[in-house]
Amino acid sequence: MSKRFATVLIIILLIIAALVSYRVIVNREKTAENVGGRQRAEAKVYGIIVSGKPFSDFLSLSGSIEPNEVINLRSEISGIVEELNFSEGGNVSNGQILIKINDAELKAQLAQATTRNSLAAENERRAKLLLEKEAISQEEYDIASADHRTAQSQIQLIEAQLIKTAIRAPFSGTVGLRNISKGSYITPMTDIAQLVDMSKVKLEFSIPERYAAKVKIGTSVRFTVQGTSDEFPATVYAIEPLVETATRTLRVRAWADNKDSRLIPGTFANVIFPLETVEKGLLVPAEALIPIQNGKKIFVKKDGLAKEVLVETGARTDADVLIVKGINEGDTVLTSGVMSLRDGSPVNVTLR
Fold first, then answer.
1. If exposure means fewest CB atoms within 10 Å of the residue's CB, which of 97, 137, 174, 176 is most exposed?
2. Please, what's the largest Cα pairwise distance for the chain?
């Protein structure tokens, strides 16, 4: 009995020892898995500490450069060009004679009209003397007086035509390429050349109606043109009183100085229209924003964990976005590696 009892006891102790050993091994494996899981779950991401800084909100608009003044030079009368007093692409002054049309026929007509006027004046003088002596009726004198006035009017008409034989520059500017030559026969329908004043230019652009109330006379804007990275200033001087119903935009014009002739009328312009300046704007990189159904979210670090925060955005630059609601100054915003994060995920943040 004693041997059998001892054998059973040994077997029981071995079973108990095996169970204890199994339990210890299982606990060690679970502990190792938990440690490894925590290490694997701690994602390595980059982040920034948000700080308030001045931010100027603006609109980026399309515009065009227009000359201060531009006209197509034309003649008011028909005739043969005798003189061309300008060069293509050259500058001219206000009042300068650009073209002289042959006026020989008009001068002959003027001489003829002057002779008739002298005769009519003499006839009127004689008729007046006869009327005073009651040798002619009042009606006969009135006819002689009317003939004199008609002769004077004819002289004034021919003199006005003679003035039109000289085409003058209505303002100072640059003459474009001419379409005629000396000796050409021109009419009032003939386009001679363009005269353009580029001493200053007009910047024309349209602003969406939601921002129409922000446009004021005297507002300063900036713009760029192709071919240079320089920014040019301009000042709003005119605003269309009505919003265009087709585009829901408001047309605006601004002056820009062009004394160095760097701005060419007709070119495209990128207009930067200022809206407001935020003294402490919270800017985050655009890559930190995650689009969701109801808006946008970002992740911030709280107690070593990634916390999901819904935000409202404002204006943006090429790289950053203004956050108007959702975060505070001093928050650590996660900027990269955020697409795989979940709310509450452990994170190891490297600050940039």
1. 137
2. 188
